[in-house]
Structure formats: C-alpha cells, structure tokens
C-alpha cells in the first residue's frame, strides 16, 4: 500500500496545527497507521519529509511507543489489561480465554487478519477492572465469556458497542480519530458514578488532602 | 579533552564561584559542571556519556556524587556549580562510592565479557572504570541480553548492540556536531538500542568520530575491526594530508604498517574531530606503490638503481635548455620549498606552479597580493566568534570539513552564515546558511550587489569572508572579494582544498613569488633569497597557470611531482607528450609516469617529517611515523639530482629546509597589486555548477571500499522549476564538448537555470567526461540510460 495524497494532505494539516512542527509527529504516526494498518518505512519517510527531520528521528519515536505497530494489525485490535488490579480481578482469565479462542499469543494477529491480541498496560480504568479494549474503545468489567461473545459478534459483523457507548468500527478508523480527535467521535461519556464514588464520599465528609 | 573556556568569564572575578570538592576549595566560572570543576583539582569522576564538546545528558549515571544539602546522589556531568557548594566524590563520600559501584554493576549486567576479542579492549573506558570504581565480582547470574551481531549502521560503521551502554554519545555527536541525526536511540527499556532508519544508513562524513568517542566497543569500523590490539600499536601524532583543514591525527602502526588513524586533540584547529576521509583513507600509502626508480629505455620503463636513475635525470635536465616544474598541491611545505629552490637555483627557471587544478592569472595576483606569506588572520577561533561569515565559491562540508564543523558550531551559537553560490547544499542547511543566489561565473556581479544588511554586517568587527579555490573559475570573483574585504573591513581567508597548497604558495612554488610571499620582481626580495641560496642570480619572472601550461608544449624538460593530470580542466597530457624529457617524482603510477623518462619513487607522509600550512596559514608540523621505510622525501631526491647536475642547492634535510624558511620569514616589503578583473559578461543558458565531494574518485581514497560505500550518490541536482522546464524526471543527460554523462535527477534547492553535478565522482568526472568546467553553458536533455 502506498500513502495516498489524502493522507499526505492530512499529515501536512496536522503539522500545521503545532507551533513547533515536530510536536505533530505522534498524531501523524496515527494517521499513517490509519491508512497503512502499521507504521511502514514509507510512512516514516513521509513524516520525516513533512517535518523536515530525518527518518531515523521518526523511527526513534515510532519504535519507542507501543501504540505504533511495526507489523500489520488487521481489522480489530484487542487489548487486555493484565496489570496487577485487572489481572487479579479476572484479566488473566480473560487473556487465557481469548488467547485460546483466537489461537494467538501476545502481539500476534490471527491468520485471517481479523484480530490482533495484545497484553496492554494500565488504561487508568481500574474502577471497571478487568478491562478489555477493542480498537482502543473500553469494554468495562469484562468476563472471559463476555469477551468471547464480543469476538463472536465482531466475527458475524454485528454492531458492537463499547460499554461506554461508542460503536466499534475498526482499528484503522480509531487510528484516524486519534490523528484527528476533533472529528466529533471522540467525546463519548467517560465518567460514571462508579468512578466518582470516592470523590462523592470525600465531598460528603468534607475530606481534604493533607 | 578539549575544554573551551570563555576568557572573559575567567577574567572577571564576579563571575566565578567557589566550591569545595572533597574538602578542597576551587574557584570556577559560573555555570561550570561539577565534573569539570573536579577535573581542575585532578579529581577523576567516572563517566561514559559525558563529553566536554557535547551537551550534557546525564544518561549513564556513572558520575553520581554527593552534594551537601541534596538528599540523593547527583550526576556530576549535568550538575552546575553554585557558590559555596560542598561536593563529595567517591574519594570522600560513601554515598557516592556506593552509587557509582551500583551504576557500574547495572551497566555491566548486559555487557558481554568479550573484552579479549573486542577492538576497544585495552583502551576501553568501561573496562578501565569497571576496574577502578566497580565491584570486583558480578552478582548477576542470569542470562545476558544478546543481539545478532554486528549490524551495519553504515558500510563503514559496525554496531555490536549488546556492548552498548546507551550513553548517547554517538547520537548526540551525529545531531549536535555533525548535523546528521541519522543515528538514534531506538526501541525502549531493555530493548533500547542505537540504530538508523531502515533505508537510510548513517552516511555522515564524520561518522568515524562516533567510534572514537564510544566509551565501550559498541561501534567499530569495517576497516579496523579485529585488525590489532591497542597495546600492540605504536602511536605517533601526525597531520592529515587530505585537505587544508589541518587536522591533528594520531597514526597507529604495527610492524611498520599503519593500522588506523584517529582524530587527535587540537583545540585550536580540529578540536577532537576529523572527517572520515582523514580517518579511513590511508590504504594508498601501502598499496600500489612504486618501489624502485624507473628509467625509460626503448619506450618501456625499467627498474634502475638510484645512482643510475639520478644520473639519467640530472643529465636529461642539464642538457635541456628550457624547463618547467609542476608541483601537486599535496606537498609538504619543506618539499614545496625544495621544488621552489630547485627550479630557481638548479634549473634556473621560474616556470613553476603548484596549482594542479582549475586556476587563473587573477588568482595568482590575488594570492600574491593578499595571501602568500601572510600571518594567520582568520583562525578557527575567529570563525567561532564571527558575527557573520560570507562564503564565496566554497562548500565547507565537501571542501574543508573541519571548517564546516566549526562553522556549524558558530552557527548554533548565533553566527550568521551567508553563502554566495548556486546550491543550497546539505552542508549549507546544516549551518543555516542564507543564500545569495548566483550561477557559477556570476559571483563578481553578486558580490557587487550584495543586500545592504549583509554589507552592514560585514562591516562589524570580527566579520569574515571565506573564498574557496573554485573562485579562480569565475572571472572577477577574486577581485570582487578583495574589493569587498577592503571596503567593509571584513577579514579575508582563502581556503584551498588540498593540504599542500597554502604551504606551496608560502614556499614560493609558483612563478613570480619567492618564499614568504616575496615578489620575484622586487630587487630586495631577490637579494635576500639569492644570498640564502648562494646563487649569483635568480631567473626572471616566469610563467604560471595557463601560460605555464601553454608553454609546456615548448619546453625541453619538465619536473613533475605529485600531479594528477585529470585534475586540470585542460588537456595537459597532450602538452606533456611534446616535452622531450620528464622527471616524475611519484609514489604511484599515473598519467605522468606513463610519459616520464625517469620515475623516482618518493616518500608518502608517513615516511617523512614535514609541515602542512592549513588554510589559516597555521603551521601543522608532523614527524615521521614509519622509521624503517627506505623511501626519500621529494626534497632529498631533488637535492641528489641537483648535486648530480653539479648545481647544488644546499642541504635537503627537513630541519634545514624549515630553518631556511624561518630565516627568510614572511615578506614585509611592498606586495603586488590586488587583481582588478572586471565582472564578466552575463551569459544566457543553462549553467554548470560543480565541486568535488569529500568522498569521491580522488586517488588518495583508493583501496578503501567501505569508505567509498558511504559516499553520496552521484546525481544531477536541479531546482524543481528547472526540472519542469527541461522535462527532467528520472534521469538527465548532460552534453559537453568531450562527451555525455547520464545521471539520476535529484530535485534540490538550486538556482534557476543551473545544473549541478559532482566534479569527480564515480560516473561523473566533468573535465574528462564532459570537457566542461563549472560556469560553462551546458546542454541537458531528459532521460538517458544509466
């Protein structure tokens, strides 16, 4: 696949958003991923050209952050948090179930290119542990069976919604939103009463940080 | 190591602070790093990432020390001093000692124990500091991290990733010093490693420096890897022979064979850096050498004894009634002086020139009036503090790479660099040069109409104008440069490309000029020199430059030393073919030895002592490296010929030659007039621009394929608009009087209606292949097979 003229225009548009063009690299790499499904050498070179930096400097950034993939992800990216809290509360079991269901290990795509499985680090969603992400949308309080059902629905092409609302599209679409967060799709409700419970109690009791 | 101090800071007491390190008080300038302050007291704090010429990064943590009042250990390489600070190093602090020991243990966790086969073993900061501040034994029993090894970060530079301690010296060098950030720290955590982009190797002209500053053995060169152990090498400080930058080098040899060359400390010139040509191009010194004197008999060269060859040479020269002397631009000052003396005192001719390249009479006048015998006026240090540096016909990165590094340092600190030329090159970008656009040949016109702000800046104290040797190709350019310097008061520097040119000029190896810039036409100057040489008279001013080359076809004998005929734009070979008797002093076979009646092998730089005058005019003496070599320097061979001709010219020992030059000293009398060549006519059409790239087909780079593989590709550079107008896409074909050249097209920042190609690179030698010079009108067509 080659970087399209539309994407090139988008890359220049992102670069123009920042007073120091180099700051634009992170969203630009997401845009590359939205078209290429991974960070390709061509994508690195185009970013370097747009920003006037070297491909090595782009590579350094692209290889540092784990959200930039250097192999094709496929249609859906499935992340399972296996850090301490999620892991203890069932994340490990979810991982085992999905790994068995899809027949792949960490950072591996399924042969049909439908799913890519990754053990992810803390998503700051411990309130709803264990959490799974589908194309970086939250699936809160997930169970092994619930996780497998999500996979089944996606396989059948049924509409799947994040537990926080948004419809799951695919990995490339999410990457596009990450590049252009002002597309109106990034404003799903992200706070609920469970998350605010502690704060509510603290307020009721007039508690203050020492 | 080089410490650049700011003299004004040292001089003003209010700008110093006093700190106490291990109980000893020391006053240092504000802003000094703790590690530097400790060095002043002779206290050595371990370090890997710290380098005085690179910005602090505190990456390796080896230099942790205790600062009173701070709860945790601080990195001495990034901590600046403050007044009254009490610092305790590992010498007096248990906290610092333990911290350093702990860091060393961490750094060694994944470091292989392959010191016995590592190039760095024996001269390795990690090895040394592990001994001095590390734990005697490791507590790490698990498997060490390994990588496939080595990988090429360029054709020349190899990387063993498991040896790396992530100090970021190489990546910081690439970015900060060379301006080539093609080497980066990639990946993260335990996988963090130095690397390049997938399809862009670390092809920097300065890449070899990363090997030298790597504090472990992670970076090695394809040329030197596994060739020798440091403790088996004998090291001799030398001077680089590749260009007029004048780098100090350290030449290492074993069993009379040079194994490697390193940049050596010379804060006033090359600081601690050199270029890859200077570092790696020395195979020519050993391979393909002419070993024995040769004389031509029945059309063929045959080996002869030295006495026989000298005899034949002397007889041939003595019998001839007219002579010419060509000296390549690579001679040492002493050898060039010997040629100058030999020509006037033994051959009694003034027909001599050291300029084996495009040249002009205007240049001769420029050099005679403003350069020859002048003391250092523009120095590297002066470049660094200049408010503005105007470059004319000069591409520092390719033509004098250490000037480029210093200009880059200056530009990073705020010096304004302006380049008068046709190409905003990669080198120009790295010094943030502003362009005064002009096609080659139009320099004089461009200088005559410089923007007012540049003229005003040139009038400021410390302003510098640097003009390259290519200005000789542009009628009126050197006259305009001289006039501009005169008008603005800016200091003027002429920067030749070759190492020996400035020295040969000052030694008098050019018609009309005696040593020290003495005009041959001046009675006082003639008297001084003839007295020293013990001769009754000196010849009348002779021919140089084009006149000399034109006269070549009519002289009966010629002495030619170290000249490549292909370096002249005109057909010198045809002229030399008509010369009845040629004596060639050479170390390799060349187009000249093909025509020579006598070939006398001479020493290369490692086999003799000598001096190069760098572009500043600064003497850069060097001693002999290889003591057992049987070769003789040019001066000695010329002395033997003179003796055999019964026209002795005096001793040929390098020390005597130096002393003679010293006795004469620079000329203090009236100088020749500066040239006043008018601006040339404007031309219509597509103009050829060209210069020699640092790494190209130069003969001194032969035999080093890894270095050659890091050279820039041979391309045609044109602007987008010119490419469109000519319909150039993939390839372009240049049509010159001598032939055609087809090369890939690269769209670049080039003046309109100008087409640039390299002067002497694989696939494009403009004199030979095109028969064209920079400034000529050239026809270019789209397409053509590569």
Notes on the protein architecture:
Chain A contains 8 helices and 5 strands. Chain A has helices spanning 5-16, 25-36, 41-51, 55-64, 84-102, 144-156, 171-179, 193-204; strands at 76-81, 108-109, 115-120, 132-134, 137-139. Chain A has a 5-stranded mixed β-sheet with strand order 2-3-1-4-5, with helices on one face. The longest helix of chain A has 19 residues, at 84-102. Chain A is globular, with a radius of gyration of 19 Å. The two termini of chain B are 48 Å apart. In chain B, helix 9 (333-346) runs parallel beside helix 18 (501-507), helix 9 (333-346) runs parallel beside helix 23 (634-644) and helix 9 packs across helix 24 (654-664). The A-B interface holds A 41, 44-45, 48, 53-60, 63-64 and B 180-188, 195-200, 202.
Structure keywords:
heterodimer; A: 210 residues; alpha+beta; Arc Repressor Mutant, subunit A; Glutaredoxin; 2 domains; five-stranded mixed β-sheet; B: 786 residues; alpha/beta; seven-stranded mixed β-sheet; 27 helices; 37 strands
Nearest-angstrom radius of gyration of chain A? 19 Å
Percent of sequence in beta strands of chain A: 5-15%
Work out the helicity level of chain A.
40-55%
Elements of chain A, N to C (H/E) = HHHHEHEEEEHHH
How many domain modules of chain A?
2
SS elements, strand count of chain A:
5
> Which sheet architecture does the biggest sheet of chain B show?
7 strands, mixed
What Rg of chain B do the Cα atoms give?
Answer: 28 Å
Roughly what fraction of the amino acids of chain B lie in strands? 15-25%
Quaternary organisation of the protein chains: heterodimer
According to CATH, the homologous superfamily of the largest domain in chain A is Glutaredoxin
* Count of DSSP H/I helices of chain A: 8
Percentage of helical residues of chain B? 25-40%
Strand adjacency order, main sheet of chain B: 15-14-27-26-25-16-17
Ends of chain A: how far apart? 56 Å
| CATH fold label of the largest domain in chain A | Glutaredoxin
Straight-line N-to-C gap of chain B: 48 Å
Q: Could you name the ranges of chain B where pLDDT drops below 50 across 5 or more consecutive residues?
A: 6-12
Number of strands of chain B: 37
